[in-house]
Amino acid sequence: HPIEFARQLTLILSELFRAIQSAELVDASWTKDDKKENFSPNLLRMSRFETKIANWLRHSIVNMENIEERVAFCSRLVDVMLELKEMNNFAALFAFNAAFQCSQVYRLKHTMKELTPRRKQILEEIQQLASTEKGYKNYKERLRAINPPCVPFLGMYLTWIVFIRDGNDGRVKGKSDHFINFKKRRMIANILQEIQQYQNTPYCLKPESTIQEFLKSHDVQGDIPHNQWEDILYDQSVDIEPRDQPAKKCPRKYKFDLRPPSTQPGTLAHFLEVATIRRQKHAASTLLEGQEGIVEGSIQQVKDSSGS
């Protein structure tokens, strides 16, 4: 279900994110081939997991030959994205958005056309949130408006750290080599402090091992080189929706119900059967009526006492 899927993905990424040490970020070691494995292991672990998730989503979309199944799958992904946004899991949210924005999926016009207007709007809002314009302006505003827990999109912070490292000397110009540029250190320290404030607040969610194992098991790219992998996905994309032609008609592969959950995404009602919700409402109504009866009885006793 979208909300439980989002919860378990959030727990996995939160654990990976909270394991990252400040020392892994200070010197931008992840950019150096000879250092990144030893000096930024946790950062790389999180980054590679996000990449695996995005690759799995892209691979799944372009390998669904039946357009009804493809539309249903994309619709469910949008529902998951809405839940990720509500949970402040921006790391996963941006990975999902990257999958939708990649050339292999973005060109599937017939598929995207069949999404409901509401889901199209959700996608557009998330695309605006993930925009890199004006230094991630929309994303920074969103971060300032939320309260932890949160799994931030680290790409923005990593970009800032590299920019500060490359744009500022480690030593003060015109001074002896013994004078350290503390302004540069303070700028990086401020970034690390912002990251740490999100690491300090965990999510209070219950792990579900079956779903987590499912999410961790996907490595569809394997050892295939990057360029070859991109070509494979693009060829499959063109096969299911040829250029300037109607979508390819193929029989359904799966027999399960393609309809999305009937309850509104973004609420805990996802997990409750309609009968259960009705029973709870009836119980609440009965309790309220009982309380009202007690109050009315007390008022009447007061009136009787006053009359006597």
SSE string? HHHHHHHHHHHHHHH
Summarize the main sheet: none
Percentage of residues in strands: under 5%
**Poorly predicted parts:** 262-296
Helix and strand composition category: mainly alpha
How many H/I helical runs? Answer: 15
| DSSP strand tally | 0
Helix content: 55-70%
- Distance separating the two termini: 63 Å
The average pLDDT value, as a whole number, equals 81
Global geometry: elongated
Radius of gyration: 26 Å
Report on the architecture of this protein.
The protein is built from 15 helices and no strands. It is 66% helix and 0% strand. The protein has helices at 2-18, 23-26, 36-39, 41-62, 67-86, 90-101, 103-106, 109-113, 117-129, 133-145, 154-167, 182-199, 209-216, 226-240, 274-307. Helix 4 (41-62) packs across helix 6 and helix 11 (154-167) packs antiparallel against helix 12 (182-199). The termini are far apart. The longest helix has 34 residues, at 274-307. The chain has 308 residues and is mainly α.
List the helices and strands and how they pair.
Blueprint: H1 2-18, H2 23-26, H3 36-39, H4 41-62, H5 67-86, H6 90-101, H7 103-106, H8 109-113, H9 117-129, H10 133-145, H11 154-167, H12 182-199, H13 209-216, H14 226-240, H15 274-307
Helix pairs in contact: 1-5, 4-6, 5-6, 5-9, 11-12
What's the quick description here?
The chain has 308 residues and is mostly helical. 66% of the residues lie in helices and 0% in strands. The chain contains 15 helices and no strands.
Task: Kindly list the characteristics that best describe this protein.
308 residues; mainly alpha
